């Protein structure tokens, strides 16, 4: 592998940007396509599909065969609120291969005993997300029911382009949430990205069932998200 190719892959890794190493099987020539770069046609569709699935593949185009080796950032789930749902969701998400971070300034709920082995942050979201910002390979789930805690990270998730944004609450609660976010300047199109009530509509009732519905919806969002290949550079 040429040094410039390796440096581009490393730049993508540092920036948590998906990248595909495209190798011409016949000639051995290789290049890197990052999510956000411009690539049309059959090859562009194949790369977009690989970015969704995380699977490498072989593509035939104009008599040539190309091997797509895909490098995806590890997906993360940030949960705002150390509640019963979060306890179950954190364990299941880790088993499914997600990095998990629980953020809740309420130390009565956010205790090491309740979240053993989980990355638990007892700062306010505005401070916690300053140290480790959200990105496009992060899912944000807000479950405190407290606007003072939930609203900022939801807004930040929309600004940062998180692949999933979900918020717990009734339809009335969610409607009030949307009104507050509109007052901050968010459009209806942006607000439509929020899954509220959170989770797939499977009739979930218990905290464990709600956690299952949330994780399933997150996985669905990750594997079906829009991949836009356009001109761009990873610095």
Automatic annotation (TrEMBL):
Keywords: Plasmid. Gene3D superfamilies: NAD(P)-binding Rossmann-like Domain. Pfam families: XdhC_C. It comes from the Bacteria. InterPro entries: MoCofactor_Util/Proc, XdhC_Rossmann_dom. Residues 77-218 form the XdhC Rossmann domain. This is XdhC family protein.
């Amino acid at each position: 592998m040429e040094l410039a190719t390796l440096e581009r892959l490393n730049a993508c890794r540092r920036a948590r940007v998906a990248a595909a190493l495209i190798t011409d099987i016949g000639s051995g020539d290789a290049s890197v396509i990052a999510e956000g770069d411009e690539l049309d046609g059959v090859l562009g569709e194949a790369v977009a599909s690989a970015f969704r699935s995380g699977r490498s593949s072989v593509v035939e185009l104009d008599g040539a065969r190309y091997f797509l080796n895909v490098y995806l950032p590890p997906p993360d789930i940030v949960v705002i609120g150390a509640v019963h749902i979060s306890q179950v969701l954190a364990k299941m998400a880790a088993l499914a291969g997600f990095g998990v971070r629980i953020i809740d300034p309420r130390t009565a709920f956010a205790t090491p005993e309740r979240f053993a082995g989980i990355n638990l942050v007892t700062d306010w979201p505005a401070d916690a997300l300053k140290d480790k910002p959200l990105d496009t390979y992060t899912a944000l789930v807000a479950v405190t029911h407290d606007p003072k805690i939930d609203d900022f990270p939801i807004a930040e998730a929309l600004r940062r382009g998180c692949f999933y944004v979900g918020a717990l609450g009734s339809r009335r609660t969610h409607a009030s949430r949307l009104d507050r976010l509109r007052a901050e300047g968010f459009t209806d199109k942006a607000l439509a990205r929020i899954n509220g009530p959170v989770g797939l509509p499977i009739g979930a009732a218990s905290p464990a069932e709600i956690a299952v519905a949330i994780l399933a919806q997150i996985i669905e969002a990750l594997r079906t998200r829009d991949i836009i290949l356009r001109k761009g550079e990873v610095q």
